[in-house]
């Protein structure tokens, strides 16, 4: 009697997991030195993306939720923006090609247990800045949202609103915004063995909302090292840092946020902002000035996949 062969994607995923695990236990000559610089590539180094489409409506859910008991994440469809070969260390991207006139506005939606406590205790009213979303919708500005799983669970209605907008792309910012490196702005640290499952779980949480799903991923605090990147190998993602850091967390005035967002912004730039309101209280006031400054420079906001794709 033959053993029934499991579905191929699961086999491929499991193979990738085993391969990734094998890399971690290889003898030292084959391993990347612990102090090796993190490999950064730009989109120009990568294979050209598929020609830009003008599909106005959001693609259907393209990332299949994994079975609850599965230990291996579902493999992403190759057509999802940001998808990379499963089993290989993900590329880390700062920006797109420096040609053309597109830039990406990216908004991180952090949510830690400490933040949830602040909400429940009434100390904080909101970590979802609806004024930002109102403005982007009113002005028809494309943007990309890096969502934590816990933020999505806290704000399902806002997430539905984001997913329903054909100009917005959804990306992954971990489940609970834990640090993936030993020293990352004082954030509590995730165990190395839990990293892969944490990020896979977040893709599943976000996938349930449909809309413009991607395989883009951003580490909390942009903190990553060799081990963190290796943990993502089974997931087929692109790690996105950003070349323009607005510094909007805990800003006291909108002016420095605007200055930081516009200084050094160039074609292909990826601007890092936050939609967390109480923890980034000036971002909605800064945004109109940022949009005006981009327009003055001839730069046009576009979804991340378009900014990282061919010019
Ligand atoms: Zn964050």
Automatic annotation (TrEMBL):
SUPFAM superfamilies for this protein: Glycoside hydrolase/deacetylase (SSF88713)
Q: Boundaries of each NodB homology domain copy?
A: 101-311
Q: Which InterPro entries match?
A: Glyco_hydro/deAcase_b/a-brl (IPR011330), NODB_dom (IPR002509), Polysacc_deacetylase_ArnD (IPR050248)
Q: Which domain of life is it from?
A: Bacteria
Q: Map out region (Disordered) in residue numbers.
A: 72-98
Comp. bias regions, Low complexity: 72-87
The protein's matches in Pfam families, at most eight in alphabetical order, are given as: Polysacc_deac_1
PANTHER family on file: GLYCOSYL TRANSFERASE-RELATED, SECRETED PROTEIN
- Put simply, this protein is called Polysaccharide deacetylase family protein
């Amino acid at each position: 009697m033959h053993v029934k062969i499991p579905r191929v994607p699961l086999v491929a995923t499991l193979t990738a997991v085993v391969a990734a695990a094998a890399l971690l236990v290889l003898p030292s000559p084959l391993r990347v030195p612990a102090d090796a610089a993190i490999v950064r590539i730009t989109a120009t180094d990568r294979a050209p993306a598929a020609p830009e489409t003008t599909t106005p409506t959001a693609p259907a859910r393209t990332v299949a939720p994994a079975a609850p008991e599965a230990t291996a994440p579902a493999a992403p469809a190759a057509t999802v923006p940001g998808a990379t070969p499963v089993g290989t260390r993900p590329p880390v991207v700062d920006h797109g090609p420096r040609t053309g006139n597109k830039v990406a506005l990216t908004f991180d939606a952090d949510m830690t247990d400490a933040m949830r406590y602040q909400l429940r205790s009434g100390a904080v009213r909101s970590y979802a800045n609806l004024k930002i979303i109102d403005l982007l919708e009113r002005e028809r500005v494309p943007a990309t949202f890096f969502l934590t799983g816990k933020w999505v669970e806290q704000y399902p209605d806002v997430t539905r609103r984001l997913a329903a907008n054909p100009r917005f792309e959804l990306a992954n910012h971990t489940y609970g915004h834990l640090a993936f490196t030993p020293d990352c702005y004082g954030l509590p640290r995730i165990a190395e063995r839990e990293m892969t499952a944490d990020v896979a779980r977040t893709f599943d949480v976000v996938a349930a909302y449909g809309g413009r799903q991607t395989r883009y991923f951003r580490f909390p605090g942009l903190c990553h090292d060799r081990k963190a990147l290796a943990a993502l190998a089974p997931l087929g993602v692109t790690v996105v840092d950003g070349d323009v850091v607005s510094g909007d967390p805990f800003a006291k005035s909108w002016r420095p946020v605007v200055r930081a967002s516009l200084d050094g912004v160039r074609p292909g730039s990826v601007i890092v902002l936050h939609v967390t309101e109480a923890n980034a209280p000036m971002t909605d006031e800064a945004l109109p000035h940022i949009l005006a400054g981009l327009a003055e420079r001839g730069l046009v906001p576009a979804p991340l996949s378009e900014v990282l794709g061919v010019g």
